[in-house]
Amino acid sequence: MSAALKDLLLGARFAVAGGRDGWTRAVLTAVGVGVGVALLLLAASVPQAFAARQARDDARSDLVSSGQLSPGANTVLLGYTDTEFRGDAVRGRLLRAEGTRPPVPPGVARFPGPGEVVVSPALKALLDSPDGRLFAPRLRGARVIGTIADAGLSGPGELAFYLGDGALTERATARIDRFGQAGLEHEGLSPLLVLLVVIIFVVLLLPIAVFLASAVRFGGERRDQRLAALRLIGADPRMTRRIAAGEATAGALLGLGVGALLFLAGRQVAPFFTVWDVSVFAADVRPGLPLTALIVVAVPVVSVAAGLAALRGVAIEPLGVTRRATVTRRRLWWRLIPPAAGLLVLAPMLGDGGVQGSAGQYQAAAGAVLLLLGAVALLPWLIDLVVRRLGGGPVGWQLAVRRLRFDSGTPVRLVNGITVAVAGTIGLQMLFAGAQSQSITETGHDAAGPQVIVQTHTFTDRAGLLSRLRSTPGVTAADASVRLTTQPARPPRAGEALVELREADCASLAHYARLGRCSPGDVFLVRTSESDSAVTAAYRPGARLTLGDDGGGGSWTLPARTRVVTGTQTYDAVRQDAVLVTPGVLRPSQLAAGTIQAYVWLSPGDPDALERLRNTAVGADPLSMVGVQSAVRMDRKFDGIRRGLYIGAVITLLLIAASMLIGVLEQLRERRRLLAMLVAVGTRRGTLSWSVLWQTAVPVLIGMVLAVVFGLALGAVLMSMVQLPLSVSWPVVGGSAGLGAAVVLLVTALSLPALWRLTRPEGLRTE
Amino acid sequence: MTAAPLLEADDLHRSFGATPALDGATMRVWPGEVVAVMGSSGSGKSTLLHCLAGILLPDSGVVTYGGRDLSAMSETERSALRRTDFGFVFQFGQLVPELTCLENVALPLRLERIRRGEAERRAAEWLERLEVADLARKRPGETSGGQAQRVAVARALVTRPRVVFADEPTGALDSLNGEKVMRLLTQAARETAAAVVLVTHEARVAGYSDREVVVRDGRTRDLTRAS
Amino acid sequence: MSIGQVFLGLLESGPRHGYDLKRAYDDRFGHVRPLHYGQVYATLSRLLKDGFVELDGVEQVDGPERKRYAVTSAGVTDVDRWLSTAEKPELYLQNTLYTKVVLALLSGRSAADLLDVQRAEHLRHMRELTRRKASGDLADQLVCDHALFHLEADLRWLELTAARLDELTKRVLT
Lengths: 767, 227, 174
Ligand SMILES: Nc1ncnc2c1ncn2[C@@H]1O[C@H](COP(=O)(O)OP(=O)(O)OP(=O)(O)O)[C@@H](O)[C@H]1O
Ligand SMILES: [Mg+2]
Description:
Chain B is α/β, with parallel strands linked by helices. Helices cover 36% and strands 25% of the residues of chain B.
């Protein structure tokens, strides 16, 4: 065995040897590195998980793109009846076999006949729960004949059903002869979303990297002493370095093992979470091989590098660990390079440039990473600078400041993690807050308007629908009109002069135009200031019109009594040309070619009103669509991301808090004699507690200031890249900085019991 | 020695688990005297000193200081007492490494909420008295053992305590430095009329005392009194 | 230290012949110089004259006649006094102190007390020297230091002996 290998092995032994203390240290390192590794593996699994999901989604695809099919033994009529339940999406399909050999959707054992339904396990669970009563009407009393197997679901939490419906006709349905389509073109995530995802990962992973680097350094001071002792008995600096490397590698390998276990355990829990309608099977959480290999190699390499880098700052001398007498002043100039480079990279994308193409995404991500790394690089310098300037104060303060001035390495390493996490959080939250406020203003949704729009496809009994809607509990008001598209019968310049026809009573029609007088039998022609001349020419009293998309409603002549009126802004559409018809003018057979559009107002205090409304809509027309006004939806969407981001940041900060706590405890333990002595001479424990608090708080505070500055910069850059007006959301800044403060308090509070314990007189005894 | 004793310990017992460290120790300290506490290693000297100073509480027996029972006081009161009336010198490692020597000496005053300027002025005087004024700006790590020990003596005396407790103050020093520390300690203590309880097993160090108390197996023998 | 006091101490454990006494003395304390017979008999007759020992009997077992001596109560008092009095701290005391310790052990007295008493005396002396040193000039200081170091050596030896009393007791009593 070569000498070098022996040294490495010796170091590895040191990593675990050394009695209880040694074991504690080894366990801490392994858990610390393990948590980091598990998170990295989780991140590495994301692409795979999405790919697996996509593959299953493709396999059940029922979007037909090939030409017309004629009915046959193997064709199926398929209706889309997607819905939502309490904010969760429900994938619903109506099926009617047209022959004897219908294709069966993946994961379904038997094709559901009329009145039969196959549901996903999650939906089954919902139906079996007390909430099931609220959802059941949407299955219209069908008998559950089985559940959909995993192969037919995008995720374990997906709510889905296939309902056999014998009444399905060609109207508003698709005819298919198979499920699944290979090589579907996926319209990937939008570049903006990719950018966000990349930056989210950077923001969450960078602190983990920092955490990893500090986890392998748990018990660093002890180790330095041990190395010094080895030097004393004749190890040369090279051997010392190899021993240190061996120790770091052992810690990292242990950590990899723990990480793998944590990951395996963690992914078993994954199916229980559904975020933003996405859930994953445990089996889908599978890190890709290249990424796994990268982690397995990179973690030990990083930890050895971190260990050796730390050795550089500490000359391991035979006579104890002498920190380099003249503390090397941290230099500023190179620390400015990363943020400057980051800004330089991002500059062309600011303002009108925007993010273009995948190169642009990489550029943007690189810029963001550089910017965040800038914070990492600047922090040690800034802490040095501030701590050197800090003046006197109470004894606790003095002790803390001096301690930091003496050796700020360890706290800096940990606070760096916090800084990156908080800066990234602020940047992203700012972007989301901006996007959110934008989306709300853009919908221009006025609070008095209807919250829900119901659109039927196969049901045109306006009065019937209205009475059903109005008798639904929780519905305060409803209004409906039949919509038909019309075009001039001659000359057939279809497309250019398509206009909407609405049939409703006078009160409803008044929403679309200033009608003046109105009584049943009246017909109106709506004109606006932007009316197209071709349309104006084609639509005159006496003009002959074709009704329905494909003329299904026959033709009809605009009566001479038609009055031209001016359009108004409506709650569902912009001002536009239209034909407004009061009841009794058109025959039901003419109207049957149209759809009904109903506007519904719900009682605000009744969260289940929307679900009951959906039940009513399905009851009237299984293929109807229920749309909730978009402002409400957008809100929720962004809330989800932002909450997720906060949770990620909190987890990261907790990790860092854990390692800070370990650092503080270690330091306290090392100084137990000194602490006991200070108490012996009458130092108040309060004074010592303050010193622990300040010692954590000062670096974190500096880190927070830096994080706010860089976070605002990052946020500004991101907002400008997606062309959002710059606005600072101070609650976001305050909230993120508050997280940092919480970390300080948590660490201090948790270290106090140890402080109490260590300051007992036993500490005075010399070992 | 007609006045009442300043510090009085009566029949102290104190065990650590199954180990009896004190087993009927009795001793008195009169104002201004220097008492050496001698005995072999593990005989309970440090334990006795810690009990006298109210750092440890005895399992049984009483320690009274100026007529007040230490075990009847709260921990806060005892802390305050240690700050104001007692001074401590240990064998080594008692200076805060991050603070300069001057700040270390000023520390007890600062704990007493004395303004920093005033505290450091007084600390400087004491450094001067212990002939280490030139160390004021240095950190403990940059001083020799003997110098650090003299700084520690300055720190013990800066509050003008009535009793200085010294546990092997010269244990880590060579004889010349040990003598110097002892000379400065006893001299300064006599000048401020502070009593000194000096734990040592070096006879030459004990030679600086007025009398000695021997501890054996946790029991004291006050020979000077007996003979 | 006088041989007489040692003899008295040895006799405390029981009457002995002169020859036995010499052998016991040489065994335990005569590492440096064994006793002459003349010294033995001169000492015994002096003790006899002072009333510290008395004749316990005369034996004749094929050879010269042998006298057996026993210690008197006056003799025991004299040993008591001697053992409980501290020696004046002088240089090279070990011999005397060692003898006293062994005798104390042999006679069932407290050797620890003996050592404590001696230590107190040493320390008293050292205190004086320390004081003298503090007030004297450099020459004085050097002289005092010399004495102090020697006294310290003695005391250290005393400590060590005290620490090994148990071991010593076992050895002496076998
Ligand atoms: N905190 C403790 N826990 C357990 N045992 C203790 C503790 N403190 C003291 N002891 C025991 O009590 C006895 C007396 O200890 P102490 O430290 O008082 O001795 P000492 O006379 O000061 O010794 P030395 O001269 O070596 O310092 C010893 O046996 C020691 O092991
Ligand atoms: Mg001790």
